[in-house]
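Researcher: Please predict.
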Amino acid sequence: MKYVLVTGGVVSGLGKGVTASSIGLLLKACGLRVTSIKIDPYLNTDAGTMSPFEHGEVFVLDDGGEVDLDLGNYERFLDIKLTRDNNITTGKIYQAIIDRERKGDYLGKTVQVVPHITDAIQDWIEKAAQIPVDGKPGPADVCVIELGGTIGDIESMPFIEALGQFSYRVGPGNFCLIHVSLVPVLNVVGEQKTKPTQHSVRGLRCLGLTPHLLACRSTTALEENVKVKLSQFCHVPKDNIITLYDVSNIWHIPLLLRDQKAHEAIFQVLNLQSIAREPDLEEWTSRAETADVLHEPVRIAMVGKYTGLSDSYLSVLKALLHASVSLHKKLFVDWVPASDLEDATAKENPDAYKAAWKLLKGADGVLVPGGFGDRGVQGKILAAKYARDNRIPYLGICLGMQTAVVEFARSVLGLQDANSTEFEPCTKNPCVIFMPEGSKTHMGGTMRLGSRRTYFQVMDCKSAKLYGNKSFIDERHRHRYEVNPEMVGRLEKAGLCFTGKDITGRRMEIVELRNHPYYVGVQFHPEFKSRPGKPSALFSGLIAASCGQLESLLLVQGQGCESNTKRIHPMTAGAGAGNNIDPSAPIIYQNGTATLELDGIYSLCNGVH
């Protein structure tokens, strides 16, 4: 196993996550299998209880891990599926050590940062690096590790010490350190200043780590004399000093690394010259260049409560971008604070109220993402009503779906007190309720998390067609509240269609309005599995509907599905059988301990029944 460590200096927010992701993509393009680890020095066990304003979005993995948003960058760039163990925090390490101490595993020894904490960090890295993440058996060839924070932070010290020891543990030729630093340009003199990077590298060397490459963030490419100066003072070969200057979109970062031969410098340090090939980034290059020249606009109103920090909805923004680029549209996102749409704001701040409604009414489509707490909920309900009444394409995610259901119950069923028990526990018409297995005493890790299966109840609906007419899909969840199954009958009679449910049929996963251009709500978070070149089906649907191209997209998606009217016996389907069964016999579908009898014809899509 080869390891590439990415550290940061001078200031935070330089883009270490994108740099680490781009390095991984570049190595993958050279024919290597790549995995990633993110180290976060905070004491939280995971990111699940952290405010989006504090730390950006919480990214959810297939196994239910609530992790740092940088793992989302890794998954999107490398098209892999990471695990909760690929995110290391101080809280996880200390919790593991304390649990072992309580069990008596240390045999009476004094438990200390060195060697116990540092050894635990190294063991965790080696264990996590062995986990297959690309769908192939066996471990990857290279593990890219990103150390959060900046060099010199007190909370990072145990990890710095551990990584210094780790470089000796794995030995020369198996460890490469890339330091991301800032080279500012002072407006007064217009000169690129190297002193901050010099101090950062000096601090890194004092802590026992010497960089093999420097990735320098600057507004423009580094001048040759600046590279010479950095090489001299930082003890890094000039050819190993890479400029990461400002670009039009982050998809250009791997191309910058390739053009400056960063892969060759890494291969030289890791002794990989003999097995790696030249990077193949033709498709990636085409996508990055296409994104720059798009000019036909599509305008999406993002109605949320964390609109003050775009990182709060990072995966949603990326999913919108993936979908718009795939449909050759230039994306414009209008941030609409949900609370500004409410009547209370009209009295307190009429200018903000008018501005919010102007943005909403000027949009081609409306997206209401997930969230927690009652602030802005009425504004989200108003946005859902506006989209439904005016036939504007609408996508509601998690809370966005729940507010759409509440709005429908109020406006169509006439239940003015309809609400979620999250916001009004004693409501007489609870459209959304607390899930049965939820915990009201512990916040962290107690939601319905990770990949769950949704079964389409009808195939003649937009969501099923967008997913290629599959009978079921697997998407990631993060919620405590869900649609009240006792109210589903009344809602469906009034015209709201619950087209996707879980295996029990009691959990509503997808809701649609049939006589609407595009009005879809989902309990899951489709943004977490969207990839460049593989956009989320529902986001593609939103963008296409907002551009008047949904029917064409549905036609294309339908052509990708081969229908088969044979009845499949589940006990033999896995053995390659596709046997004709008695047409009057029900289909028996088994999943774990649950067994369903389904009448009617099953459709086969991409070999999955």
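Model: Residues 560-609 have pLDDT under 50 and may be disordered.
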